[in-house]
From TrEMBL:
The keyword DNA repair applies. It comes from Pichia inconspicua. This is DNA mismatch repair protein. The lineage of its organism: Eukaryota, Fungi, Dikarya, Ascomycota, Saccharomycotina. Its main location: nucleus. Pfam families: MutS_I, MutS_II, MutS_III, MutS_IV, MutS_V.
Length: 1171
């Protein structure tokens, strides 16, 4: 065989390892002039990915074709030059769309890892069928993107890097192994692949060596066996205190590692396991160069849950999976959404910074100091996310801690609660007394819907725990942490807070001082739990130091006197925030009304919905603003167009304080305040056209603070560089240290340009230029025609057929110095960014004052846009200031059944007139009718319309008139509550009891089929007694829906009870019903249960027998359920007898004042007169 044909064979054989495409022409026919860039092949950096990087750096008009490395042109493989590097081999890169962002193998079958014994399944990981011996590359601990084999011998810094002398044959074997393992983008062949072409250039002696080595363990099996022996302590897990997993005191967050294992660890393993052993239940992303890697258990999770590839035989003696640095946020979010905590371990220094540290003599002499320094950056959990790339939406995600104290003697539970929205740095704290059913706690949880809950282990009552789980977010995470040591008591909390404020020169928040003086120790302990948890996540300094603390007390009198009360049961029954179908916001009132533009405005709007206004003037102010926006399209358009340009300033202020905001986002913050200034100036010019709340916001806007803020920050740094390059470069004169460092860089760059001019003059060629190759900068590119003139002391770095690249001694020295100066300059820039952020953070209170004012504008705009979307008819509700409450809606439609809602076509919805309390009569409607006739929808519609009116929104009706309602209380449905251990009847009576305790004459109460959870006699008696009490003694507005047809007989002459029914058309012969969904006066003609049964397909014979049985039972029950005595043949309801007895003893029959007592007596006497 000729030498030329041998060369071609070698080249084609080499290419077969890196591409399955047709072999390119020999290098002699290539026109490739592009120097080869040095890259590394790692378990996470496939050859295809390296080729893709080259493609990005190659001009489009240049063809990329493989050039045979010079080292392969020698006749003797054994004696070949060992300077070959993987980076000198390139291949055609796939299209951008074909390159995934991470090494994921799709449709790969998950394989369970067994620590205790070697599994035969290990052979599944060996893709190649050739039986030659494979060698394992032990990767070094440097930036993977900079790795070069030919320089690796000199890099003995890292404990996890091993290199030995080897022939080209062995290096090619290694590349073959790696290229096969990393072929993640092509499906595995169905049949065995052909024998590799590299065998054609190997001697018969080499073939014999491969055959002999095949009898030994494969690298995969050998690795698994060594891994099993090395990590035998992972077979039987123990926590840091030595507790087994079966132990009640087992702590899943920690891991016990025996001292014998620590003694055998490499420096890198010690670095990794020192972090991982303290967060065993957390997925740890470990920074390695340009990748984040997961090891052992975390790698198994990544492989089994997300099909991330387990790379080859691992690295640093551990199984691994990895993702590119740029896709960390994406993968972190996927792990968090799957219920995992995610820890990010970052490199504190680059390889160059490490060399500078060692050169300056700062490193220790031990082996651990040779490893690149890393540290835990932070831990991400579902309830403590800050970065907008990880947050799903603009809604608040709360992390809540709960402390409980039980007083069994007085049947009182005292709760201390602290919850924080980490994305905004807002802490809210409260302490309150509650009943044993946790009514207030349930309301609180329904309002905030916590995403993560902190609980002292074994200290919560079981019923409280069930309430927590039932009313938290469906995907909420629950953390049971150790009392005292982790969930601090109030004394430990105060001590830690005092030390924290002293260390960071902060002032203790006033609300915490107040709670300590007033001995609200449960709330302080709850804050202690949050404090410890944030410290464990590395978030305490950045969040607590903001000092953004306030009290959240929805139960205090001031709030109750200014807003409507909506308890947790009502929020669920009316589907205000979550529907009852899939717990999403589809079809909810909040979804319909929340049409704000800004993220911080939408968060504020939720509090508007939770707390509808009670004061008539405040409601009218909102309605005036909404009406003015609906009538003036120019102002509405101005608000929309300007607010759309604003970023989430509130959340970004938190990241400015924590110094984690990207420079381009800092520019967005500055520009947002500029837009706000433009908006306020435009609104101020038209202030005469504004009305109500919107006008008040503009007049009282902190314009001076805004102008001062913009004056301090305009022109301080280069915005274009911050946006395009991600660096904050101050303008000249702003920072002295930066200017000095920048001058050093300029001086060095000038010297390098002078040298280039000298070289061009000396060698008489203007084609000599500087080129950068990766992190090797200022390489001197020389055309081939003058290569012979180049001195021997110039170091060749790369070559093509047309040019070569060198480093001269002078340029090499200056380039190295320039890189070091730029690295120091980079640190100065980072410190400079921190200083700029710290200065901006001093204006946090001013900024928040501005943000809150803009958020109110957005809430008003949201109401206007929601009102506009209601369709026709639409009206402004009239708020009536009357002694007695009333509601009067004409042609009212449910706001969630509107065009675009996706729930129901608007033409299918039948509007209704609803009137209660007019002329101080008919305050409660006794609603009867068949199932599926629309009763429940009517009840919910009445309540939702009332809430909308008191928020300040227009209504989907022809007209609306009402007095402010102080509370809406509902008892809907007949569901039991397995999560809370309650039966249907118990839930009914419990909710009814709360309504009886808290309802007032200005409340709106809704009871749907009360008593159906018990026996007929018990249910009927309870229903009659409750209805009489609400109508006679409390005198609330409301509806009482029932299937007890005879219930209305006791209230025929009650002036506050009006019989109502849902209209239907019934065909007795065919038992078909036509639902008209129209509210009518009068008693229903029956429940039509047999008609509904027939419509549902129940066999006719069964329906007929049931009809006979029902008629017989009804006749008997009428006699048995006669809960009255008779006087002259007239029945006397038991309610009248009870009231008369109670009043005759001199006891009060109502507690709402003389006027309501007068109305009570009036109702009783009218009923007696009509007997």
């Amino acid at each position: 065989m000729s030498v030329d044909s041998s060369k071609k064979m070698k080249q084609a054989s080499l290419m077969s390892f890196f591409t399955k495409k047709k072999v390119q022409k020999p290098a002699s026919q290539s026109t490739n002039d592009v120097p080869v860039q040095v890259d590394s092949i790692t378990p996470d950096n496939s050859v295809a990915e390296i080729a893709f990087k080259h493609k990005l750096n190659t001009p489009a008009n240049e063809k990329k074709i493989l050039e045979t490395p010079k080292s392969l042109k020698t006749k003797d493989v054994k004696n070949a030059d060992t300077s070959i590097t993987p980076s000198k081999i390139t291949t055609t890169a796939p299209a951008i769309s074909e390159v995934p962002s991470s090494p994921v193998v799709m449709n790969r079958k998950s394989r369970k890892i067994n620590y205790s014994e070697l599994s035969d399944d290990d052979e599944d990981d060996i893709v190649a069928v050739t039986k030659k011996k494979r060698r394992t590359i032990a990767w070094d601990d440097i930036d993977d993107d900079d790795f070069r084999v030919d320089d690796a011998v000199a890099d003995e810094d890292d404990e996890d890097f091993i290199i030995d002398e080897k022939s080209h044959k062995e290096e090619l074997d290694e590349l073959n192994d790696k290229s096969i393992v990393d072929e993640a983008h092509e499906p595995a062949p169905k049949s065995s692949p052909p024998r590799n072409k590299i065998s054609s250039i190997l001697s018969s002696k080499s073939k014999t060596q491969f055959k002999t080595s095949s009898a030994k363990l494969t690298p995969q099996k050998k690795f698994n066996k060594e891994n099993e022996e090395r990590y035998h302590w992972l077979v039987t897990l123990k926590d840091a205190d030595g507790h087994l997993e079966t132990d009640p005191d087992y702590d899943p967050r920690t891991l016990f590692i025996p001292q014998s294992a620590w003694d055998k660890f490499t420096a890198f393993e010690k670095q990794y396991w020192s972090i991982k052993s303290k967060m065993w239940d957390t997925v740890v992303f470990f920074k390695k160069g340009k990748f984040f890697e997961l090891y052992e258990k975390d790698a198994d999770i990544a492989h089994s849950k997300f099909d991330l590839k387990l790379a080859g035989t691992g690295r640093a003696n551990m199984r691994l999976a990895g993702v590119p640095e740029m896709s960390f946020d994406y993968w972190a979010k996927r792990f968090i959404d799957a219920g995992y905590k995610v820890a990010k371990v970052d490199q504190k220094e680059s390889m160059l910074a490490k060399e500078i540290r060692e050169k300056q003599g700062d490193s220790k002499s031990d082996k651990e100091s040779k490893v690149i320094q890393r540290e835990l950056a932070y831990i991400l959990t579902c309830g403590t996310l800050i970065d907008e790339n990880l947050l799903n939406d603009e809604s608040s995600k709360y992390c809540l801690a709960l402390k409980e104290k039980i007083d069994y003697a007085n049947n009182i539970k005292t709760f201390g609660v602290c919850f924080v929205d980490v994305s905004t740095g807002s802490f809210q704290i409260l302490e309150f007394n509650d009943d044993f059913e946790c009514s207030k706690l349930e309301t609180l949880l329904s309002q905030i819907n916590p995403m993560e809950v902190l609980i002292p282990k074994n200290e919560l009552d079981s019923h409280t725990l069930r309430i927590l789980k039932f009313n938290s977010h469906p995907s909420a995470s629950f953390n049971f942490i150790k009392p005292e040591t982790e969930f601090w008591d109030h004394e430990k909390t105060i001590d830690e807070l005092s030390a924290f404020t002293t260390e960071h020169d902060l002032k203790t928040p006033d609300i915490l001082n107040s709670y300590y003086k007033n001995e609200r120790f449960n709330a302080l302990s709850a804050f202690g739990g949050v404090f410890w948890y944030l410290r464990s996540l590395k978030l305490d300094v950045s969040i607590i130091s903001m000092g953004n603390f306030k009290e959240y007390d929805p139960f205090n009198k001031a709030l109750l006197n200014s807003s409507m009360r909506l308890d947790g049961v009502t929020l669920q029954n009316l589907e205000i925030f979550n529907n009852s179908f899939d717990q999403s916001d589809r079809g909810t009132l909040f979804k319909v009304l929340n049409k704000g533009v800004t993220s911080f405005g939408k968060r504020m709007f939720k509090s508007w919905v939770i707390h509808p206004l009670l004061n008539k003037d405040a409601i009218e102010d909102r309605l005036d603003s909404v009406e003015s926006l609906l009538n003036d399209g120019d102002i509405k358009y101005l608000l929309e167009s300007k607010l759309k340009k604003l970023c989430d300033v509130e959340r970004m202020l938190t990241r400015i304080h924590s110094k984690t905001l990207k420079p381009k986002d800092f520019v967005r913050v500055i520009e947002s305040f500029e837009v706000i200034s433009e908006l306020i100036n435009a609104l101020s010019a038209n202030v005469d056209n504004l009305r109500g709340l919107l006008k008040s916001i503009v007049v009282e806007f902190p314009l001076l603070e805004l102008e001062e803020l913009l004056e301090n920050w305009n022109g301080k740094f280069d915005k274009s560089l911050a946006i395009n390059e991600g660096v904050i470069v101050p303008n000249e004169g702003v920072d002295e240290e930066f200017d000095e460092s920048n001058n050093k860089i300029t001086t060095l760059e000038k010297k390098l340009e002078d040298l280039l001019s000298e070289y061009r003059s000396e060698y008489r060629s203007s084609e000599i230029v500087y080129k950068d190759s990766g992190k090797e900068i200022y390489l001197i590119e020389v055309p081939m025609k003058i290569v012979g003139k180049i001195p021997h002391d110039w170091q060749q770095m790369a070559a093509t057929s047309k040019c070569k690249r060198y480093w001269s001694p002078e340029v090499r020295t200056l380039a190295k110095e320039l890189m070091e100066v730029k690295e120091l300059h980079k640190m100065i820039c980072m410190n400079l960014k921190d200083k700029i952020y710290a200065n901006f953070d001093k204006s946090y209170e001013k900024c928040m004052k501005i943000v809150q004012s803009v958020a109110k504008m957005d809430c008003v705009l949201s109401l206007a846009r929601a009102s506009e979307a209601l369709g026709f008819p639409m009206c402004r509700p009239e708020i009536v200031d009357s002694e007695y409450s009333l509601i009067d809606f004409k042609q009212l439609r449910h706001p969630c059944f509107l065009p675009g809602s996706g729930i129901l076509r608007t033409k299918d919805f039948i509007p209704n007139d609803i009137a209660l309390g007019l002329d101080n009569k008919n305050r409660i409607g006794l609603l009867t009718g068949a199932n599926a006739a629309g009763k429940s929808t009517l009840l919910r519609m009445s309540c939702v319309a009332t809430i909308m009116a008191q928020i300040g929104c227009f209504l989907p009706a022809e007209s609306a008139r009402l007095t402010p309602i102080d509370a809406i209380m509902t008892r809907l449905g007949a569901n039991d509550n397995i999560m809370q251990g309650k039966s249907t009847f118990y839930v009914e009576l419990l909710e009814t009891k709360k309504m009886l305790d808290n309802a007032t004459p200005r409340s709106l109460v809704v009871l749907d089929e009360l008593g159906r959870g018990g026996s007929s006699s018990d249910g009927f008696a309870i229903a009659e007694a409750v209805l009489h009490h609400f109508a006679t003694h409390i005198q609330s507005l409301g509806f009482f829906a029932t299937h007890y047809a005879s219930l209305g007989d006791a209230f025929v002459h009650h002036r506050q009870v009006v019989p109502l029914r849902m209209a239907i058309l019934a065909d007795a012969a065919s038992k078909k019903l036509t639902f008209l969904y129209t509210l009518e006066h009068g008693k229903s003609h029956g429940s039509f249960g047999m008609h509904v049964a027939a419509m549902c397909g129940i066999p006719e014979k069964i329906v007929e027998r049931a009809t006979v049985a029902a008629e017989r039972w009804e006749r008997e029950s009428r006699r048995g359920l006669s809960q009255s005595t008779t006087v002259d043949g007239n029945s006397i309801p038991l309610g009248i007898e009870s009231d008369w007895s109670w009043w005759s003893q001199g006891k009060k029959i109502t507690s709402f004042g003389p006027s309501y007592e007068k109305e009570t007596l009036r109702s009783v006497f009218e009923m007696i007169e009509n007997l």
